[in-house]
């Protein structure tokens, strides 16, 4: 069946992908926003979103998007049907769309089909993108009819009349417009010389059969059906579009009524901005560097091929080969230059402007509004003290940031950020700046309840809106400047503070000429927005004493952990060396020069060797990153150094103490094992004693090196295996005990249930007994029965005493009878 549509354009995608791609929009208003982004990127000054009833279609109405943007030519309209191709990314202008996916994913999330009408210059083009058509015709690939006409004559623009006729027949059969006259009427709806009309129909339905978008409840809005969200931006499309753009200039009309778009930065009480300088956000720059590196590799491969071609003996094409080689060389140089620029960009610090203010009109609608390239990505994100329940600190505070694409890139659906780690880091930073904002504005230092009472919030529980009295409305109006947009030049103007101005007077149609301020009552005059004060983040670094205290505490914790893990307690009398003395000895050794001498050898150890009092022996073994060095020096030179440094410890005493330390190390690791034959000694004591008698430093260093290699490679490995075995044994024992405890707990729970059942049965029998003795019948739960019995026992009731005596007398007879009866 697809052969008769062989001449028509295809989107080069499987039909199943269309549905899968649309499901990326979990938030349906995010799908609608994609279509608004296209109008804004097209330079539209006005966008109308409205519904047209049509009971023949699924959902009962069509959803239309009409803008006065630049429109599309037939060639440009043909490009939009392909996924992932967009010229906006390579443009120098800052377009919101970057992926060539918004029109298809957004419209297919709302409905199954759309038809687009666009006008540009002297042509009119229609794009028909329909899942219904492909499904009913049995097509697996998406076929897209794209007929075009001349604007003046309304004649077709085609070289293939048969193809044009096929396209129209498909549109008449599967679209809401049944003939060419109705199609021409849609082009007439585009009131200017250029613009675009998008009609989405066969809308998606809920499980109840109702459409996801509700256009009946509020005739001037588009609502999300069945939404229970607190924030109006999540269930009202009018509220969502009012804050959709960081710098709003496009006028938006929903159901023929103007949306009061907000310049959010200037709608807050006591705004303040902070410049956050950081080099943490490198995700997008790293991708650019990788792309530049790949481009360099490709250019170098082309250069190698050109060099091989030049070196060939075939001289007929030598001149052209040299030209290719020269171009390849220039291309490699250009690619390397681009790579260096990208690498420099990667290292640069970036500045983000964080703006904070208080939403005094609706305290509950607070949080962070994160924009990317002027487009809202995340809203009402709680940070810092706002995450705490029932905390007034940070209540009502709104934070705003507009992140450039090169710093942090949003996802394809523009509802998340690709780098989640960098986004979470940004939220933590904004939480810190939020606390700083509260300090700078004095909100954290004053009584927060009194602060909110000034704006009509009478108690802490009233977190929604302030009171509607004129007093509080006037107070709020005086606290925030009244800013409005001109319908002609689209500039924002500030009206003078006066209670006589009401927003509704200027809302539907307002131009600069209506401004009573003579400095801004003309569209030719520049836009002057209110200045926002600049704040600074106070960074209090810890003092020197605090740093030393933190360092000492960290060292104590480290040594405590080492002491806990040490399997053997050493004899303190043999190993005690003060930290002060050891520091002096190490500093002395550092000054020593290596000179050959046949006198008493001195062993110099690395200054990083820990104190013998606080560190276990295994820490003194040489690690892979530190080499324990042993140097021999003349005693004459040592004596001179000792005299210069006024040290009282003799060289022999120093050697003796160091040898004692080494003895302890060796005895720790060689208590159960004999020394290897290479050492020439049968015991550790003989080896340690030889250190002081040895006159050749090279021989001493060799022996010590052998000892430490043996410790590191053999005995440390044995020690680690033994420690691992003990840990596994402890874990196994803990798991076994846990299993036994679980079984015991289950048995106790069964016993408790049996006892509880017996107690309940006893209460039931007791209640029956009381009723039989005509002492009343307590009703209700167990606690009520217990309280009734206690009250009954406290009363001096003769009838109760007689009954109890009778029961006591007969109880011996009743129980056996009852048991026999059973």
TrEMBL record:
PANTHER family: MORC FAMILY CW-TYPE ZINC FINGER PROTEIN 1 (PTHR23337:SF6), ZINC FINGER CW-TYPE COILED-COIL DOMAIN PROTEIN 1 (PTHR23337). This is MORC family CW-type zinc finger protein 1. GO terms for molecular function: zinc ion binding. The keyword Nucleus applies. Residues 477-531 form the CW-type domain. It is found in: Nucleus. Residues 571-605 have a biased composition (Basic and acidic residues). It holds the Pfam family Morc6_S5. Residues 562-626 are annotated as: Disordered. The gene is MORC1. Keywords: Coiled coil, Developmental protein, Differentiation, Metal-binding, Nucleus, RNA-mediated gene silencing, Spermatogenesis, Zinc, Zinc-finger. It comes from Leptonychotes weddellii. Residues 289-349, 745-772 form a coiled coil. InterPro entries: HATPase_C_sf (IPR036890), Morc_S5 (IPR041006), Znf_CW (IPR011124). GO terms for biological process: cell differentiation; regulatory ncRNA-mediated gene silencing; spermatogenesis. One of its GO terms (cellular component) is nucleus.
């Amino acid at each position: 069946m697809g052969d008769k549509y062989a001449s028509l354009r295809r989107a080069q995608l499987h039909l199943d992908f269309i549905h899968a791609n649309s499901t990326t929009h979990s938030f349906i208003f995010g799908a609608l926003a994609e279509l608004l982004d296209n109008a804004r990127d097209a330079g539209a000054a006005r966008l109308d979103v409205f519904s047209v009833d049509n009971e023949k279609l699924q959902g009962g109405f069509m959803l239309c998007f009409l803008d006065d943007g630049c429109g599309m030519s037939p060639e440009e309209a043909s490009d939009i049907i392909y996924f992932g191709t967009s010229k906006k990314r390579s443009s120098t202008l800052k377009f919101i769309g970057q992926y060539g996916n918004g029109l298809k994913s957004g419209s297919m999330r709302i409905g199954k089909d759309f038809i687009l009408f666009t006008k540009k210059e002297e042509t009119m083009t229609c794009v028909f993108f329909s899942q219904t058509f492909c499904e009913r015709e049995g097509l697996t690939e998406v076929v897209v009819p794209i007929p075009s006409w001349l604007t003046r004559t309304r004649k077709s623009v085609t070289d293939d009349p048969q193809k044009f006729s096929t396209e129209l027949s498909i549109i008449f059969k599967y679209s809401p417009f049944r003939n060419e006259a109705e199609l021409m009427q849609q082009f007439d709806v585009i009131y200017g010389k250029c613009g675009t009309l998008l009609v989405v129909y066969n809308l998606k339905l809920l499980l109840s059969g109702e459409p996801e978008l509700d256009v009946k409840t509020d005739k001037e809005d588009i609502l999300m059906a069945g939404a229970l969200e607190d924030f109006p931006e999540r269930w009202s499309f009018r509220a969502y579009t009012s804050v959709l753009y960081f710098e709003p200039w496009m006028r938006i009309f929903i159901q023929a009524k103007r949306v009061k778009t907000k310049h959010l930065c200037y709608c807050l009480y006591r705004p303040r901005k902070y410049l956050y300088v950081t080099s943490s956000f490198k995700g997008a720059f790293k991708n650019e560097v990788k792309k530049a590196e790949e481009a360099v590799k490709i250019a170098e491969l082309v250069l190698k091929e050109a060099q091989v071609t030049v070196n060939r003996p075939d001289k007929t094409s030598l001149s052209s080969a040299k030209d290719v080689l020269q171009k390849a060389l220039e291309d490699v140089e250009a690619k390397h230059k681009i790579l260096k620029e990208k690498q420099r960009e990667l290292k640069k610090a970036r500045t983000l402007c964080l703006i904070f203010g208080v939403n005094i009109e609706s305290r509950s609608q607070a949080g962070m509004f994160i924009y990317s390239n002027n487009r809202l990505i995340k809203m009402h994100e709680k940070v810092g003290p706002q995450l705490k329940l029932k905390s007034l600190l940070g209540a009502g505070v709104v934070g705003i940031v507009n992140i450039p694409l090169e710093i942090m890139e949003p996802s394809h659906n523009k509802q998340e950020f690709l780098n989640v780690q960098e986004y979470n880091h940004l939220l933590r930073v904004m939480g810190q700046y939020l606390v700083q904002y509260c300090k700078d504005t004095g909100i954290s230092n004053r009584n927060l309840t009194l602060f909110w009472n000034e704006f009509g919030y009478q108690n802490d529980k009233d977190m929604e809106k302030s009171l509607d009295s004129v007093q509080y409305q006037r107070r709020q109006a005086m606290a925030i400047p009244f800013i409005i947009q001109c319908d002609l030049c689209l500039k924002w103007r500030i009206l003078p503070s006066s209670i006589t101005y009401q927003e509704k007077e200027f809302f539907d149609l307002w131009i600069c000429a209506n401004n009573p301020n003579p400095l801004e009552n003309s569209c030719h005059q520049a836009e002057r927005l209110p200045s926002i004060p600049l704040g600074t983040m106070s960074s209090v670094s810890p003092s020197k004493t605090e740093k030393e205290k933190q360092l000492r505490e960290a060292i104590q914790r480290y040594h405590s952990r080492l002491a806990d893990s040490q399997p053997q307690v050493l004899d303190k009398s043999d190993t005690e060396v003060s930290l002060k003395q050891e520091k002096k000895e190490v500093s002395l050794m550092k000054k020593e020069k290596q000179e050959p001498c046949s006198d008493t050898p001195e062993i110099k150890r690395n200054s990083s060797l820990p104190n013998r009092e606080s560190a276990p022996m295994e820490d003194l073994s040489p690690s892979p990153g530190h080499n324990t060095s042993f140097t021999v020096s003349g005693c004459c030179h040592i004596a001179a150094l000792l005299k210069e440094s006024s040290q009282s410890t003799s060289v022999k005493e120093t050697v003796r103490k160091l040898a004692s330390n080494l003895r302890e190390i060796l005895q720790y690791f060689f208590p159960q094992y004999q020394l290897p034959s290479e050492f020439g000694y049968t015991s550790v004591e003989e080896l340690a004693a030889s250190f002081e008698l040895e006159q050749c430093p090279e021989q001493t260093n060799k022996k010590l090196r052998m000892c430490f290699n043996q410790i590191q490679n053999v005995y440390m490995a044995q020690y680690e295996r033994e420690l691992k075995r003990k840990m596994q044994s402890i874990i196994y024992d803990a798991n076994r005990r846990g299993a036994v405890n679980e079984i015991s707990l289950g048995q106790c729970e069964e016993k408790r249930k049996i006892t509880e059942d017996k107690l309940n049965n006893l209460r039931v029998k007791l209640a029956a007994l009381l009723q039989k003795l005509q002492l009343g019948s307590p009703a209700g739960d167990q606690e009520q029965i217990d309280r009734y019995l206690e009250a009954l026992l406290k009363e001096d009731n003769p009838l109760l005493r007689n009954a109890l005596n009778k029961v006591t007398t007969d109880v011996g007879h009743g129980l056996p009878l009852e048991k026999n009866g059973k």
